Amino acid sequence: MTSNPTSKPLSFPCLRHLYFDMSYEDIPLFDFASFPILQDLRIASWYIDDGTLPTSSLTRLPHLSALTINGTNADDLSIASFCSLCPVLTHLTLECYLANYGDLLKQLPPTLTHLKLLKEPDAPGPGQHCDHELHRFNLVEELSLDDGLYSPSLPSYLVGFKETQNP
Q1: Where are the alpha helices (H) located in the chain, listed in sequence order?
Q2: Distance of alpha carbon 142 from alpha carbon 9, whole angstroms
Q3: DSSP H or E segment with residue 2
Q4: How far apart, in Å, are the Cα atoms of 159 and each of 64, 108, 114, 116?
Q5: What is the pLDDT of residues 30-54, one digit of tens each?
Q6: Beta strand segments in the chain, E
Q7: In 3-state terms, the chain is what percent helix, strand and coil (to 5)?
Q8: Each residue of 84-135: pLDDT tens digit?
Q9: Which end of the chain is less enclosed by CB atoms within 10 A, N or C?
Q10: 132 and 105 in contact (C-beta within 8 Å)?
Q11: What is the rounded distance in angstroms from the CA atom of residue 43 to the CA atom of residue 69?
Q12: pTM of the model
C-alpha cells in the first residue's frame, strides 16, 4: 500500500497526556507537532545515549509542564536538549539505570518546582551523588531522591523535602 503524499498527518489537538515507549531502536523520537496542547509526557526506554538529539528537527512543546523519562542512563546532553524544547517545564521525573544526574542538573532550568531523581529498581550500586547541584532549584516544592543520590551535605533547606524511595 502506498501513502498519498497529499494526505494530512494524524493530529490529536485535544490530547494533553501521552505515554511514548522508545524500546524499539527503529522507532525514533517522533515529532510532537500532532499534539499542540500536550501537557504531560512520559517517555519509557530512553535510548539516546550519545548526546546526539536532533532538537532542530523536533517541535517545541510550549505547554508541556510535566516530563517523565525512564531509561538506561541519564545522558546529560540529550535529556537536557529535550528539556530545552519545553519552556514551561516544572515537573521532571527521571528514573535511570545508571543514575548520573550531577551534570544534567547543571543544564536544567532552575524553574523546576517538582523534581524526582530515581534509580531503576535493579540498578547496581548506590548511584552518584547529585546534591551539589540542587542549590540551583530554589523554587522546588517537591523533591524526591533515591538512596545514594544525596550525601550528608544536602543543603539544609532541601532536607525537609527529601524523600527516599527505598526503605
Answers
A1: 76-83, 102-107, 156-159
A2: 38
A3: none
A4: 28, 21, 15, 14
A5: 667 777 888 999 988 877 766 667 6
A6: 17-21, 40-46, 66-73, 91-98, 114-119, 142-145
A7: 20, 25, 60
A8: 889 999 999 998 877 778 888 988 888 899 999 888 777 776 667 888 888 8
A9: N
A10: no
A11: 5
A12: 0.79
